[in-house]
Amino acid sequence: MNLTREARVAVVGAGPGGLVCARVLQLHGRSVTVFEREAAFDARPQGGSLDLHPETGQAALRAAGVLDRFHALSRPEGQEWRKVDHVTAAALEQEWPPGDEGAGVEDRPEIDRGHLRGLLLDSLAPGTVRWGSAVSGAVPLADGTCRLEFTDGTSEVFDLVVGADGAWSRVRPAVSDALPAYTGVAFVETGFDDSDVRHPALARLVGPGTLVAESGSTVLFAQRNSNGHIRTYVAFRAPQDWRTAAGLDVDDTAAMRAHLGARLDGWAEVLRYAMLNGDHGFADRPLFALPVPHIWEHVPGVTLLGDAAHLMPPLGVGVNHALLDGAELAQALVGAERVDDAVRAYEEVMLPRSADLAKRCAEGLGHLVP
Questions:
Q1: CA 257 to CA 232: how far, in whole Å?
Q2: According to the annotation, is 51 in a ligand binding site?
Q3: For the segment 247-293, what is each residue's pLDDT rounded down to a tens digit?
Q4: Where does NADPH bind (predicted)?
Q5: pTM for this one?
Q6: How many C-beta atoms lie closer than 10 Å to residue 331's C-beta?
């Protein structure tokens, strides 16, 4: 019967959405195992800063019982946002964090992705996450369960497998043959350490939050993270093979600087500095998205959440809805008698919501990077 109170649940992927799902299940005394291909929490850098929204990300953390911990680690001042002229670097627009005078203004404090992941991992029972467990696929079985297969040749059967394994999900093929497609927008990242001491002019310009400058189809973002770190990104329209066509190796810092410098010709020197003089070279992060809408016929024993279900351009909503997905799926499992009923109820809400959101994000990317 696959009763939820006795269900064997596997979450594939130890990102925010999968971890929230596991945490809410454990809060209600349910069994869950998280499988993560990375060898350890600190196996790779965790990315930039995230703003969590009250009705989605923060609501999920409240359901997980970790909202107070989030507020202790978050940076309300990180909500400051400023747009500057690309030639003069003079301020054109500015938004301030909501304060006492900002009644009714939505409070979206920032938190480093690594800090968010860390607080969620700390909230789980020891041994919940099996590190170094790379999944190769998920196979729904005739009895409504699902066999989870690993790259080492082993497998385990669960009453529910939750694909929370991101853009290139190994679980997604169990319910959908959709693949992410290139959006036409290239994204290049660099970063600065100890910016207040080592890069003071840039630190003053960026402030405690986010800086934006644009010219045509080129947009520069600089974002303050914790510990004086600044991440800088430039986005522009280009073919997916733009680096190959230009003969560029992302590890050839000098060549990348020359190429990006030509793109930023005529920009204010401090903005050029923000993109061309990072402390760790460059990372190439082309933007991909799943088809809109991405929906599937319900398959017993398996479902998706977060980027595995609705990868969309990074316009500040993806992680919020991944967290909401994880909390709502876990709550559905806690509240229903049978696993299949819970998953159907979750998908009936999540799929149309994410389809609408993905449509708006695709339109937003078109406006942001025309």
A1: 13
A2: yes
A3: 999 999 999 999 999 999 999 999 999 999 999 899 999 999 999 99
A4: 44
A5: 0.93
A6: 19
Count of Cβ atoms closer than 10 Å to residue 116 Cβ: 27
Residue 85, marked binder:
no
Contact 54, 106 (CB under 8 A): yes
H helices of 102-164, in order, are 113-122
Residue type (1 letter), 152: D
Cβ–Cβ < 8 Å for 8, 337: no
Long-range contacts of 240-244 (CB under 8 A, 24+ apart): 240/182, 240/286, 242/186, 243/284
CATH 3.30.9.30 segments of the chain: 184-286
356 marked ligand binding residue: no
CATH code for residues 184-286: 3.30.9.30
Taking only the tens place, the pLDDT of each residue in 294-320 is 999 999 999 999 999 999 998 878 999
Q: Report whether 338 belongs to an annotated binding site.
A: no
DSSP bridge partners of 304: 163
CATH fold for the domain made of 4-74+109-180+290-368: FAD/NAD(P)-binding domain (3.50.50)
Please list the residue range(s) of the chain that carry CATH number 3.50.50.60. Answer: 4-74+109-180+290-368
Distance from C-alpha of 267 to C-alpha of 285, rounded to nearest angstrom: 22
Checking 85-88 for CB contacts under 8 A at 24+ apart, the result is: 85/213, 85/268, 86/213, 86/214, 86/215, 86/220, 86/266, 86/267, 86/268, 86/271, 87/266, 87/267, 87/268, 88/268
